[in-house]
Amino acid sequence: MKSCKINGMHPLLWIGCCIIIIASVYLDVLPGDMVGAVAACFGFGSIIVFLGDRIPIWNTYLGGGVLLCMFGGSALRYFHLLPERTVETLSNFIGPWGWMNTFIIFVIVGSVLSVSRKVLLNSIARYIPCILAACLGAALVATIIGALFGKTPGETLAFYVLPIMSGGSGAGALPLAQMFSEMTGADFDHYITIAMATLTLGDLFAVISASILAKLTSGNPRINGNGKLMKSGKSHQQTADKAFSVPEMKDLVHCLIIVFAVYMLSVIFSTKLLPSIAGAQIHMFAYAVIFSVILKLTNVLPENLVSALVYSQKYMISAFVVVQMFCCGVAYTDLATLISCFASPATVLICLGVILGAILGGGLLGHLVGFYPYESAITSGLCMANAGGSGDVALLSSVKRMNLMPYAQISSRIGNAIILILGSFIFAILF
Q1: % of the chain residues with pLDDT over 70
Q2: What residues does each domain of the chain span?
Q3: pTM assigned to the model
């Protein structure tokens, strides 16, 4: 027992803390403020994450504990296992009290800055066009399949293509849902429920497809580069991300003003200076992505502050993703709608169409610009369609291509930024 650790804690200490928090919920003494909301999320959520990370198949192909945390929160509310007072507190915390925006802005800024400037610059000419081709392929194939089931192009793009290609939930489906709700006046709960279901299916299909393609192309050196992306022989190691140092406390304090300045500048542009381009409304999170990319490319931030911003993003994800997902499950995710999505042949086939289109688009353009089609398809296509960073690890490790992680990170992070920008235009034009 002395050597056993759960989340870095002794099991009895961890269990004891969770029991105390959960007891406060059912004794109806949980404070109706931010402290009570965060406590409830950790008390219930950390147990669900622990279980989800250890359930076979689920922990590898279906998002692990993080995604189960959202489903668990939804189930607790659906079966009336949480007091209404607790549900109200969690709903206020993630909504009116602004926790969601706080989480998202830290993830966006830190994610963009975590990609090395050299990788970002080298990728613009050839790799980013492959990402765009994967998005286009996903949109075309999914729209055709969606039409067969009576779905409009706007519905297919908004509820299937964008969530799956957004690179996960924290910086993908959640800001997309908020953008969709604010720009169209539609129900946030309805969008996020369907988006979570489709991105889960997309992640599953992405990992399975990568493994099948690896076996089918393993004997063809013209298609499969055995871990090399560029046919010229240039090694990925020349553009690998450098390690970021652990920041000092003063740098972590100073990085807060940068994050909030980016957020406020994005609000100013989205509401006053340039709220729309060519008639399409641009959401503040799309502007946050643009300004973060400018900060990275211009190299105006000193290395110590960049390290602090990247560290803050990693801390927000590792420490508070449980809070985000459990809150989202309780407040916004309807379990009945989720089940109906998974049981729907239309949803399954459209999601599969997104994956196949991403493979075709990323692989074909990759071949034209001098990449190995298989490596281009899994990095620019499938790493766009999986569940973000954890999805990258699951996918690349399953096909023994972990050396391609720098490119996978561009797909998950910069690709995510591209999806948010495209989402602003799609929501404004088609809805």
Answers
A1: 89
A2: 11-97, 100-430
A3: 0.71
